[in-house]
Amino acid sequence: MKKHANCVYLAAILLAPYVASMGSSKILSEGELNVYSARKEHLIKPLLDRFSEANNIKINLVTAKGDALLARLKAEGVNSPADVFLTVDAGRLHRAQLAGAFQPIKSDLLQQSIPAHLRSDKDEWFGLSTRVRVIVYAKDRVDADRLSTYESLSSAEWKGRICVRSSGNIYNQSLVASMLATQGLSHTEQWLNGFTKNFARQPSGGDRDQIKAVAAGQCDIAVVNSYYLAGMLTSSDDSERDAADKVALHWPNQNDRGSHINISGAGVTRSSKNSELATRLLEFLCAADSQHWYAQINNEYPVLAKAEIHEVLRKWGEFKADQLNVTKLGIYNSDAILAMDRAGWK
Ligand code: FE
Fold first, then answer.
1. Which helix (H) or strand (E) holds 91?
2. What's the CA gap between 127 and 120, in Å, rounded?
3. How far is CA 40 from its chain centroid?
4. pLDDT at 21 over 90
5. What are the boundaries of each domain within the chain?
6. What is the pTM of this model?
7. Which pLDDT tens digit goes with each residue over 291-305?
């Protein structure tokens, strides 16, 4: 697994938000696609290059944070040069759908390749990979038998022992949205009140920071996305690998609905003048080879059942994934934010 040169890509994002050939007045030829991607360039461009070469077309790639790209799409409206918008988290994809950023796509191939619960119910966006929000725990301080569900993390047993990032983060919002969708408001609020009381510290940092905090003894468990742990286990940075080795992964809710999953995904923009070609690109991203590469480089799970997974993920073994339609994560997003706020989750 490659080590990511984050600074270089951050600089690229900041310095090159516009691709030279993408003036808004430009009329796109049939052989050209503009892709707005919240995924960093090295996590998607090699695939786009493959599609570009195989079809003899040009692809212009713009990378930035998902929310910034959505704001740009909204501002550009029908004049947007974008054909495809690719981002992470169903909550964000749903937001883009509500903002009218996508057009419905009819593709037998996409419908056959991508399970129904991993795409928009209106066929406006499609999952390209899945990630699992898991519990990681300190191997030397936590008895794995004490772990079971997300819900159990509200019990007094975990008082002062949990690290998790802030409620402003959409991964947590989507986890809470999944609870609202399956258990309703009052159960979720009860859970939130107990869970937030168990925090070892005020939420800060990203998911990797929570794993490092567990490794450093600041807390005993953390709730994080699976690919961060995989990334640390395969990191070229010794301190990241050492931290990851001190923790183990628990798949939550294996005896009921399954572990909470989310997606990265994409859709064809409403403004696209080239929706047929854009649809072909989405279909290409769902082909077995693409799925294998994309899931491997992101340490995620492919949406295509037959695509191979990374060795680290294989070692973690099989798990039961929640089958909740990820559209629900978007539908319940604003209720989740309000409930987290009421519970005092900073
Ligand atoms: Fe992430």
1. helix 90-98
2. 8
3. 13
4. no
5. 10-130+262-316, 132-259+327-342
6. 0.89
7. 999 999 999 999 998
Q: Do domains 10-130+262-316 and 132-259+327-342 have the same CATH topology?
A: yes
How far does residue 39's CA lie from ligand 1's centre (Å)? 10
Note the Cα 115 to chain centre separation in Å. 17
| pLDDT over 70 at 45, yes or no | yes
The answer to whether 299 touches 316, Cβ cutoff 8 Å, is: no
Note the CATH architecture for domain 10-130+262-316.
3-Layer(aba) Sandwich (3.40)
Ligand 1 centroid to 292 CA: how many Å? Answer: 19
Please give the CATH number for the structural domain made up of 132-259+327-342.
Answer: 3.40.190.10
**Tokens in use for 13?**
């994002």
> How close is the Cα of 257 to the center of ligand 1, in Å?
23
Strands (E), 6-66: 32-37, 58-63
Cα of 56 from ligand 1 centre, angstroms: 32
d(CA 205, CA 164): 9
Cα gap 338→184, rounded to integer Å: 14
For ligand 1, the distance from its centroid to the CA atom of residue 199, given in whole angstroms, is 21
Quote the ligand 1 centre to 23 CA distance (angstroms): 30
